[in-house]
Fold this sequence. Notes:
CATH class of the largest domain: Alpha Beta
Largest sheet: 6 strands, mixed
Structural class: alpha/beta
Radius of gyration: 18 Å
Order of helices and strands: EHHEHEEEHEEHEEHEEHEHEHEH
Amino acid sequence: MxxxxxxxxxxxxxxxxxxxxxxxxxxxxxxxxxxxHTIATGRSMLSAHSILNGYDFDLPQIYNNGVTIWxxxxxxxxxxxxxxxxxxxxxxxxxxxxNIAPFVHGINGRNYSVYHPKPKHKIEQQxxxxxxxxSNAEILPLKSLPANSNVTNISMIxxxxxxxxxxxxxxxxxxxxxxxxxxxxxxxxxxxxxxHCKANKGAAVSRLKRQLxxxxxxxxxxxxxxxxxxxxxxxxxxxxxxKAQIKEYATAVIGNNYEDGIALFLKERFSL
Length: 272
């Protein structure tokens, strides 16, 4: 049994962070031919569902870089490798000491909350207005974060040099892992997402491979948070826009995400 995992941003989604018409049609063809496929993304379930444009993945889905797995058939949400109180404190200090507002992502049942201090910069307020406020997440002040919360990750955005400094600090904590990249708001800005070190897509993919009794895992991804699933996949493919390190690990490099590269590859690979 083939089991396909798609990263979203920079991979399955186009340059506008959407499923193109061609990609959506291709996913429907996969479903019609009963070829198992799902997603493995750094996005939260709430964030991902808002951009999938009505396409429903039937199989369990991986969110928050493996912290969250949602099984739609059982309506079951599995949480693993959440951030503990000491880790949360370390991350908040690292961000706020550099005058950056951290966004703490919490989940209770199927309810998402984002906790944050007063924004320090215009780019942070824009993130709240354009992204968090348009989702179904509850936006709350950081001081209302309950003790022992289910915190999946902490994110932030800011000037590239400042985010790089914070990432260096975070990497000194062995229990944490940080992923970062250029922000769509402009090259001078950078985003960062911080998780427990044991939280990764590879572990979650391995879990679903066993659960679904798959014999051949195929992964698509473009960034450093995809490396863990590339390492355990039987086949792994990087779009031409992927980071160089990802391309080195890939079975092959295929078309760009903004040119429907994954969809065109799938049509040929599975004769759709």
